[in-house]
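# nightly structure sweep
# worker-07 picked up a monomer target from the shared queue
# config: single-sequence mode, recycle default, output format = structure tokens
# input follows
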Amino acid sequence: MALGAAYWGAFGEGIVGEPWAVIGCVKIWVSTLPGYFYGQTCDVYVWEGGVSGPPGAVLDLVAGVVLGNVPNWPTVGENDVQVHYPLFQEECTVGYWGNWPGMHCAYYVGADLDGFGGGHPWTYIAPGIGYPTGWNDPSIIWGPTQSLGLGAVYAWNSPAEARSWGSIKAMFQ
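# output follows
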């Protein structure tokens, strides 16, 4: 899937995994202002890359998600979105795009502005608004940003190993 207008305003966080990592869910921490959230949906993505360079091709998409924990600021709510177990190699980006184009922002993703270390935050900027177009660090628009309130729960899935039928049966005795 090629990047297009549907991504303008998307947010993502690059994560480092291990070879054969499998994502079970994407975690999204958000907050809103009173009266701004009334059930608007978002599309949750897993993209390839995002640590050593910008996000690339879509590995997974869950469309039309209504987040169930969107409290008013200053409280930030954690949301888990089940994905289709995409396999990624070494790195990927998890994130979302809000399905409310042309409307006020329904909710805001949490951000770590000055924590230790640092993450791999991304936002997809539309052309013609005075900033570089495409995937960029959110610091370009909102000032120093260490990481965004986006993450994943993932596990390692070992590739198949050659075994004899006898050794496989012995595992269940």
